[in-house]
C-alpha cells in the first residue's frame, strides 16, 4: 500500500517499524521502506516523532515526485509477449 501512496506525488510520512528484539538484520519490507525514503518518495519517522513529522509535512509543498510503477510493469509485461 505504501508504494501506491508514493505514486500520488503527495507528502508521505511512514512510521518506521520497530526491531522488537530481533537482530539488526532488516526485513525485506524494512529495506523497501528505507529505499523509498532514500529516493525521496517518503519520510520514515519513529512513532514518537509522528506528530512533529506531520506538522512539518503540512508546512512544505508536495515534492511532486511520483513513484512510476506502472511504466515498469508495462515494460516487463511487454517483454513477455
Give a description of the structure.
With 81 residues, the protein is mostly helical. The chain has one domain (2-80). Helix content is 47%, strand content 7%. Helix 2 links the parallel strand 1 (13-15) and strand 2 (43-45). The longest helix has 12 residues, at 69-80.
Task: Give a short summary of the structure.
This protein has four helices and two strands; from the N terminus they run H-E-H-E-H-H. The chain is mostly helical and 81 residues long. It has one domain.
Chain-wise SSE layout:
Elements: H1 2-6, E1 13-15, H2 28-38, E2 43-45, H3 50-59, H4 69-80
Parallel strand pairs: 1-2
What is the SS-derived class? mainly alpha
Strand content: 5-15%
Largest sheet: 2 strands, parallel
Series of H and E elements: HEHEHH
Poorly predicted runs are: none
Report the helical percentage: 40-55%
Please indicate the count of domains.
Answer: 1
Keywords:
single chain; 81 residues; mainly alpha; two-stranded parallel ribbon; 4 helices; 47% helix; flat
